[in-house]
Design brief:
globular; five-stranded antiparallel β-sheet; 25 strands; about 50% strand; about 350 residues; mainly beta
Length: about 350
Amino acid sequence: MQIDRLVQEELFVAGEGGYHTYRIPALAVAMEGTILAFCEGRRDSSSDSGQIDLLLRRSDDDGHTWSAPQVVATEAGMTCGNPCPVVERASATIWLPFCKNLAAGHEGHITEGKAPRTVWLTHSEDAGVSWSEPREITATTKDPSWTWYATGPTHGIQLASGRLVVPCDHMVGVHFDRQKDPYHSHVIISDDAGATWRIGGIVDEGTNECAVIETADMSLYINCRNYRGEKRRASARSIDGGSSFQPRIWEDGLPEPICQGSLVSLPGGDGGPSDLALFTNPASADSRSNLTLRYTEDGGRSWTALRSLYEGPSAYSDLAVAADGEILCLYERGADSCYETLTLARLSLA
């Protein structure tokens, strides 16, 4: 496999449009081919807390031109974050789970049990032009013993069976101490085309932000941020559509300085699940830098580096396949800091 062509474009630039910083990229491709690029618009600082809105830019020509940013979710005095879109094929509905917390209720307060973190859902039936009023789904998607919670941040998937699967993570309130309490990756699932959602499988302790694909044998491969500081990724598999996960393993071939990563499957010859997939993360054990694209031909059992998309400061990313077959990667990058832009890489593979 090799890259035939690579074009990169800044979609969101820190300080422009009334926002201090743009972070947490997520991509979706609507059934008719419209590309949706989501992110958090952080109004006053680069902090994970504060007034944060969910934003969107759309492209109807495979990523060559883009609409102006639009606000998908906002609330005064609130953080609205962690977009994780998933497309339901039969209805062409784009579902967008996300999270809310008080602007002043940062992660430390949440993990101490002193501030709430809730789960919400909005959807679009017109390829992202308009969005429904968000509704809360915390009761069915968050266990009462969990403190911190995050949807994504990447995209969800629809299985060959029709089930929708959204990768998430949470912290269990044992000591109510961010340094001591266990983190886990998990998924939420819907078997009624997105109308209702429930907690699915939970990955072993030490995992965090995650991404998921369906492989050729219709099992799931989930790849996770490692919260133990071991400078490598973790993964697990599910043979029941995400209802449970087998024991976690460490991914020695995927170095990382504790960060988020992204996965996307490439369609099989019949359009169904395949073992060919792509992965991006900052592939440096020492710093958030060197955003690297890798591929697997065996469903995530081994990975081969394809190329670095950017050797400088780079962090979170998300991958998608456009209607014309080009690969899209929306990622955080900058000259001095990871968080200066959200840049879209468009590339063709041979």
